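Format is sequence with structure; example below:
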Amino acid sequence: MPNENVIIALFGTKGSGKSELSKKIVEEYSRVIAVDMLGEYDLDQVACSVDDAINVLVEHEQSSAFSLSVRLPETDDYLDVLECAYEMTDTLIVVEEASFLCSASSFPPELSKLVRYGRHRRISQLYISRRPAEVSRDVTAQADVLVTFRQREPRDLDYLYSCAPGARMSRREFGAYVEGLPDYRCAVFGDKEVAPLAVIEASWRKMSEQGELFAVDGGSGARESDGAASSGEATPVTAAKTEDETAIDEDEAQA
């Protein structure tokens, strides 16, 4: 059972591997409620109305294991379900297509309550969206772990860079790193002690001893200078290479 008090923000465009990773994360939890707008999760129960969803939550309030896919015709109705979901404990709440419920300019009180106080009820949360810049800043500000697959839009790269204040690299280097991520591999920023196993396995770079991923200095919030006061560039930190990366480098050197 993974950490019960983790908030994860997961970003990725269509076909990047985002949905596959989210399903693997879900498999690690025994109690799951999914805002499943596109019907992507094969869970034990499906609710297509607010009343049905609430009935399932009441039925399984004390159950050691259950999983519910909520698929409603009206987007706003999901907020009613999430308000009730706050009463559940020891549960993972998944919010697919999060930008429909909490855009950059809107953060409804039902989600605000979950993000700010869900930890006290041991509620973990997984917010999933295609583009990071389209999601409320409150989500990424409270996230313990931020995961992104390849992104190319400058606005999204700027947003991600601002969410990783410990990154020991310039904005240009950061952008090149995220744009250059291989298919089905993600960049992860945050605390490995609370990151689900599926996230660690999908990351392109290995965790460092400080409990952070590549390009993160341990959460100090200060980018390190390279000693050249005039440049203002940050010094990139090269992560320990995986066996596959080392083999690639050796092959290239022999070519």
Summary: DSSP finds nine helices and eight strands in the chain.
